[in-house]
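#structure-requests
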Amino acid sequence: MRSALGACASLCLLLGCASRQAEGVGGALAGPSARNLPALISTDQLAEWQRGGRVSLIDVRSDVFTYLSGHLPGAAYLNTETLRATEGGVPAQLLPARAYGDLFSRLGLSFDQPVVIYSAGETGNIDATFLAWLLAGFGHPKVYVLNGGYFKWELEHRPVVQQYPRITAVTFPSDPFSPERASLEDVRRAVANHDAVLVDARPPAQYAGEAGAQLRRGHIPGAISHYWQDDLTQVGFGHVWKSAAELRTSYAAQRITPDKNIIAYCNSTTEASHVHFTLRYLLGYPRVRIYVGSWTEWAERLDLPVEVGQRGGGAAGQEDSGTAGQRDSGAVR
C-alpha cells in the first residue's frame, strides 16, 4: 500500500496535481488538501466517522421510496432534481445562490462539519458528484462522496435504518457562489479558437448521434468522448473509482492532460460533474469547468453546429492527425 501511495504521489508531483492521492481501487483519499477540495471517502472511513460523532450524511438516490425502505444511519434525503429548474426556457439549469442557501440550511449543512454524500452507486454516482460540485462552489471545506455508494455499504452488511434524522436548521452562507462552470459563449469560443478541450461525458451512442432525446443528436464539434462510467471499476458486485494511476493513464491517452483548459459537458450537468470530480478533485487538474447548458441547450440552438460520428482526441474543433480516419467518418451539420 505504501509503495502504491508513493508512486501515485510522484506522478501527481510530476504533473502538477493537487496533494490528494487515492489509496488504490475502492480506497478513500487522503485528508483535505490546503485548498479543501471535495474527495472520496471509503465505507470503512465513514463507519469510523459515524462512531466518532458529527457528520452530515445526504442520501441523493433518485427515488425517495428507496430512502424510506432503508438508508444509512443519520442520512437526510435530497432529490437532486430540486437543485435545478428551467431558466430562459432551457431545462435543468442552476438555481440562484439564495435558493441553495435556503435548502442547505434546512438540511443542517454547516461549514464546520463534514458532509458525506452518497447515491445508489454505479449509475447514481452522478447525483452525488453534482451536489459535491455545488457545495464546492460555495467553498464548503469538508465535502466527500462515498465511494461505491449505498450499494457497496449494503453489500458489506453495514447498518441500514428507516428512522429519519432529527435535523436542526443552520444558516448556510449563500454568498459567494462560484461554481466552476462554463457558459455557452465560453464553449462557442472554444470551438472557434481551439483554446480548450471539450469532454463529452455521455454514453458513446449519444456522442455518435445514434441516440438521444434532444432536438438534434451528435456532439459539439471537436469534443472528445469520455463516458463517465469508464472511470469506474467493479469490485465484487459493486463499482468504485479506478485508481489514480489508471485514471491518469486513461485521460492522458485521449490527450486530456493537466496543462489543458478543460470544459466537460453531458446532457444536463450531472454526468459532466462525474468527469469534473475525477479530473479536478481526484487527479488535481487545475482548470476544469462544466458547461451547465450542456447538450440540452446546444442541440436546440439551430444556429450552432453539430458533429456526428466518432473522432479522435485533440483541442475543441481541432483535427487529430493520428486519427484522421475516424474524423472523416463524422459530419458537421
